User: What shape does this take?
Amino acid sequence: MPNLKDLKNRIDSVTSTRKITKAMQMVAAAKLRRAQESAEAGRPYAERFNAVMAGLSAAASGSESAPKLLSGTGNDQTHLLVIMTSERGLCGGFNSSIVRMARARAGALLADGKTVKILTVGKKGRDQIKRNYGDHMIAHVDMSEVKRVGYTNAQDIAKDVISRFDGGEFDVATIFYSQFESVISQIPTELQIIPAKFEAGESDAAATIYDYEPDEEEILADLLPRGVATQIFSALLENGASEQGARMSAMDNATRNAGDMIDKLTIEYNRSRQAVITNELIEIISGAEAL
Amino acid sequence: MADTMQFDLVSPERKLASVLASEVQLPGSEGDMTAMPDHAPTITTLRPGLLRVVSAEGTQEYLVTGGFAEITATSTSVLAEQALPRDEVTQDLIDGLMAQATSARDGATADTMDAAVKLVADMAAVSDDLGLSVKQ
Assistant: This one.
């Protein structure tokens, strides 16, 4: 049986752990609110953008001169997987679930004899991917200096991806991120960004015949790279909210577990103390009886 | 004829305006244009410039750095790359944008040179409109 001093120390250490996890939970809750707000603020833009692009691309995809970003290179031999994860840990299964999904995809592609290239955003995902697919990794984007995700961050990533596409490094690009559903549920999601797919919006948008200025193809060429950036941006925002949500519930659990543990240890501590006292009493009484 | 239309100005980071407007002046990449209710459906790209919205609450001005606008008979939506109300525009901000444009021009290849030079010129013109000085 551990002695009283040891038990006391353990109770103290679990108590301070609980304080830390409680603090992290509250910080995550505050950050979550902010991340959710920016995710919501970004939604109208993305929705409008997709609606316009759906109309435009439906019109252009038939023609042979459609930009490569839309129509693809014609084959799908080389795949680029853009895996977005967090910079910090202690957020439950958030990073692992994204990585697991990406890994399954990479495995399936490799089994099909395709070439896989991996670009990671965020340190945690890189560390996990390195173990199995280290030699497929071509680049990493470090977000640890970024306090608040801005559109420029997304643009930088998009520029990098597009220049690689133009350089013929890959045929298909897919991003992996976590869709924020609620604090307790974040859904790992994969989304193909090149060749671009836009979900056809309501039919009335497609029915309107627009004048284009400059002409349709020029607009499309101008907007497609922006579309890639927009999709990456909303993925980053969703990821930010998911990360904080996951951290919040993970820390909530940790706080509760620490509380349970403290209760258990306290009971054990009291029992030991009682046992010590009983022992002492027995010694005294049996000593007195022996006289 | 309806005398107002729905006007929305959104940037990737936030929604800046959503009002009933009677007139919107846009800095289109092929020239300025004014959209009024019952305008023919048009999609146009934007150059850096000032966007002016006339509504019942008066006239509001925004700085946009590019993007595109979707005009229909009943609504005008501007999806700007970056947009700011005029009174939030500071000299520092203009300097930063100008520096970006200039560095893009200096790093431009023959293909993109025209566009980059135009971008710098557009930025200079906007700064001028705003009454801010331009550092080249």
About this structure: The beta strands of chain B are 5-10, 15-28, 31-35, 42-46, 49-55, 58-64, 67-71, 75-80, 83-85. Chain B has a mean pLDDT of 82. The first strand of chain B starts at residue 5 and ends at 10. The domain at 5-85 of chain B is CATH 2.60.15.10 (ATP Synthase; domain 1).
